[in-house]
Amino acid sequence: MEASELKATIRTESGKGPARRLRAEGLVPAVLYGSGAESTMLTVNAAELIQIIRADKGEAGFVKLVIDEGGKKSERVSVIKELQTNTVTKKIVHADFYEIRMDRKLTRNVPIHIVGSSIGVDKGGELNQFKRDVRLSCMPGLMPRYVDVDVTELMIGGTLRVSDLKLAEGIEILDAGNASIVTVAAKRGTVTEESAPAEGAGEAAKEPELVGKKGAKEEA
Predict the structure, then answer these.
(1) Which residue positions in the chain have pLDDT lower than 70?
(2) SS3 per-residue string spanning the chain
(3) Mean pLDDT of the chain
(4) Which of 53, 88, 168, 203 is spaced 20 to 30 A from 105 at the CA atom?
(5) Cα–Cα distance measured from residue 106 to residue 34, given in angstroms and rounded to the nearest whole number
(6) Which positions ≥6 away from 105 have C-beta within 8 Å?
(7) Mind listing the domains of the chain with CATH numbers?
(8) How high is the pLDDT of residue 187?
(9) CA-to-CA distance for 187 and 197, rounded, in angstroms?
(10) Whole-angstrom Cα distance, residue 198 to residue 190?
(11) pLDDT (tens digit, 9 = 90+) per residue, 48-84?
C-alpha cells in the first residue's frame, strides 16, 4: 500500500476566528478520527494537500500524516474522508482524515481508469462510461488506488459490466455485478459491417417493411 506523506501539526484552538487566521497563513484546519479513537485537531499545508489530491486524481489515495506534537513526531495512515470548500473561491477550508486500522477491512469507492483503444471506437463507435468508481472491501494493504478497465476488445454494441472486473484475491466488489461500466454504441448514421446492405439491395432497402425493421433496430 502506497501512501502520500503530508506534514501536520497539532491544533489547540477551534472556532471561526482561529480558522480564518490559519487559512490566511496558507494552512487548512483538519481533524483526524477513526473507529473507537478520539479525534485529533490538526493543521496541514493547503498547497501540499492540493498537490496530493491532484497526484491521486481525487481523494482516493492513502495519506500518511506525519504529526508534529511539540517536537515529537508520530505517523498515522489515513484516507481523506471529506473536504469542505468555499463555494465562491473553491479553496479548501477544512479537511477530515479517517485513520486506517491495518488489521481491519476497509471499504471505499475506488476510481475506474479506462485503458486501451476500443476496436469499436476505431470503427466509428462511441465509448460511453456509466461508472466512474467501484466500491471495494478488503484489507488496507490490498486496496488499489484505482481499477484498470481495458476496453481494447470492446466492439460496437459491446458492454463491460462490474462482473467482468478481475481483481486480486481478497478484494470483494460490493457493487451489483450487472451494473454497466462502459459500452460502445453506434453513432447516429454509422454503418456497421452487420448492418451494411448487400450489393444491389438499394431499392429493396426503400420498401416499407425494411424501413419498419430499421426503426425497430433504432428503438433497441
Answers:
(1) 1, 36, 56-60, 189-220
(2) CCEEEEEEEECCCCCHHHHHHHHHCCEEEEEEEECCEEEEEEEEEHHHHHHHHHHCCCCCCEEEEEEEECCEEEEEEEEEEEEEECCCCCCEEEEEEEECCCCCCEEEEEEEEEECCCHHHHCCEEEEECCCEEEEEECHHHCCCCEEEECCCCCCCCEEEHHHCCCCCCCEECCCCCCEEEEEEECCCCCCCCCCCCCCCCCHHHCHHHHHHHHHHHHC
(3) 84
(4) 53
(5) 12
(6) 137, 138, 139
(7) 3-101 (2.40.240.10), 107-206 (2.170.120.20)
(8) 83
(9) 17
(10) 16
(11) 999 998 886 556 678 999 999 877 899 999 999 899 9
CA atoms of 214 and 195, how far apart (whole Å): 10
Contacts with 36 (C-beta within 8 Å, 6 or more apart), sequence order: none
Strands 106-115 and 147-150: parallel
**Radius of gyration of the chain, Cα coordinates, nearest whole angstrom:** 25
Whole-model pTM: value is 0.69
Encoded amino acid at 12, one letter: T
